[in-house]
Design a protein that fits this description.
0% strand; flat; 113 residues; single chain; mainly alpha
Length: 113
Amino acid sequence: MIAYMSSPGLAWAWLFLAGLLEIGWAIGLKYTEGFTRFWPSALTLVSMAASVLFLGLALKNLPLGTAYAIWTGIGTIGTALLGMWLFGEPATALRLACIGLILSGIVGLKLLS
């Protein structure tokens, strides 16, 4: 089973899941209110640990620089978009264009790996 969990075909799936969990813990930080609320804090910490675990699984088959950049890029894009949607952060054209540049970097790294 361990060999299956670290196969090259799953590395990108693990990385994507790690990125989604990074979004979860970044957004979760807002709801912890400085880690003063138990359940949001617990869920945020679990998301942090799971995100790093799945990143580690992905790193068994992906280059460190590529995986780390994509992991943080997924987290950055998702957190920025959810910040706009959930917290009313500005969604200016320039901000969205910059998010698009991050996305293009992720796609480029994926295509070159």
